[in-house]
Amino acid sequence: MKKDKKWEVIITIIVSITGVIIAGLTYGTNRLQAKVAKNESLPNFVVEEKAEYDEIADKTIDTVIEISNLEGRLNNYNSETITILQCQYIDEEGEFYSADIPVENYYIIGVKSGNKVGVIEKRETGSNYVKLANLENDISRYNRGLNMGTLTIIPKSYIKISYMNLLDEKETVYYETEILKTNLIDNEIGQQQFDEYHMLSENNLGLNINTTNNVTVEDLTDKIMNASEKAIEFKTEGKGERAGMDIIDKIIPLLSTILGACLAYFFGIKQQRKLDKKNKMLAASQLYYDLKSIEDYLKEETGAVNLRYSSEWQVIVAQCAFLEPEQVKKVYDIYDKAYNYNYYYRSKEKRGKKIEKDSILYYGALKKTMFGEKGNCIDENMYNSEYKELLECLNKEMQKR
Fold first, then answer.
1. How far apart are CA 387 and CA 288, in angstroms?
2. Contact between residue 342 and residue 297 where contact means Cβ atoms under 8 Å apart
3. pLDDT digit string, tens, across residues 52-66
4. What is the model's pLDDT at position 386?
5. What number of other Cβ atoms are within 10 A of residue 136's Cβ?
6. Tell me: the pLDDT tens digits for 264-279?
7. pTM higher than 0.70
8. What is the mean pLDDT of the chain?
9. Using CA atoms, how far apart are residues 106 and 115, in angstroms rounded to an integer?
10. Which of the residues in the chain have pLDDT under 50?
11. The three-state (H, E, C) secondary structure of the chain, written as one string
12. Residue 64: CA atoms inside 13 Å, Cβ hemisphere, count?
């Protein structure tokens, strides 16, 4: 009789364990099916910033941002657009300032079409484009008067798009755009741009060209100096707040890991690790060969051809979790200089000027960032030590199997 009860207990335990396993597998399958359905229904956005050209006046009269959805379900769509001036300024005492100055309500006209597919929204600057163009002309005259480029500005816009997916979850994507060039950027980077924009605006450090016909160069330089200091404070405070959040961020995944540990084995955790490893190898390879392409341009390109690089480099870097913070900083330094070089090259190209690569400040700066020096000269046959370590780290990740 006791023997029979013992077997009853064992059978009950086996049935219970089997139930847990089946429930776990069913849950995993349902989640996977829901995820597949969600991904198939996601909208496919295209964001473009275009110039409106007046052929009679032979000049650009406005810029327009068009947001389109090529396919997919679109519910509770909303967007926000901000515009900044990336500014660099050297004062009379040789002090260097760098700041992103908000241009408040630059894209002041916005029209939603009501369509689910095709062009869903269009934004225009009205007369603000002309006012900004006048400011750029004033800056050119200001620099010519000093016989040196002490003040530079690069207009750039950021678009935040939000909507509800098939599972009624809020999705958010961020784009960085300028004329003829649009990039999808990492959400954390995009939100940081919006947070800094609103912080500077709230501290009266933005330009509201809707309320004035003329923004002077002096107004702008004052704001650059003040905004440069305020942005440093903002980022420092953000790091302090982030330190507290890091503790929470570490505790929550830990609890989730403990709760999910029992089912992880049945959900193919081993296969996921292989996939993560493969994705890291792919990202390392993409970044490595994109950097080598920039190298080749600096070493070998002699024709009138602009520098090209992957517009998705920030997304690729975000997937390279194996990089050290200093190596990530090095990558950003390289691509920042590459972007500035590309911008000034295109600027000269549009004006029909003869382009000498060495005359563009960022051409030499980019070489110095990647190559070593012998004496006072850049030696293209040897690498900058930090850049060399970066390449070795990427190459090591590429070789993993």
1. 11
2. no
3. 878 887 788 888 999
4. 92
5. 12
6. 445 555 566 666 677 7
7. no
8. 80
9. 25
10. 1-3, 29, 34, 36-38, 239-240, 243, 255, 261, 264-265
11. CHHHHHHHHHHHHHHHHHHHHHHHHHHHHHHHHHHHHHHHHCCCEEEEEEEEEECCCCEEEEEEEEEEECCCCCEEEEEEEEEEEEEEEECCCCCEEEEEEEECCCCCEEEECCCCCEEEEEEECCCHHHHHHHHHHHHHHHHHHHCCCCEEEEEEEEEEEEEECCCCCEEEEEEEEECCEEEEECHHHHHHHHHHHHHHHHCCCCECCCCCCCCCHHHHHHHHHHHHHHHHHHHHHHHHHHHHHHHHHHHHHHHHHHHHHHHHCCCCHHHHHHHHHHHHHHHHHHHHHHHHHHHHHHHHCCCCCCCCCCCCHHHHHHCCCCCCHHHHHHHHHHHHHHHHHHHHHHHHHHCCCCCCHHHCHHHHHHHHHHEEEECCEEEEEEECHHHHHHHHHHHHHHCCC
12. 13
pLDDT given for residue 22 in this prediction: 57
CB contact set of 337 (below 8 Å; sequence gap of 6+): 362, 365, 366, 369
Fill in the amino acid letter for 356.
E
Structure tokens at 308: 């090209």
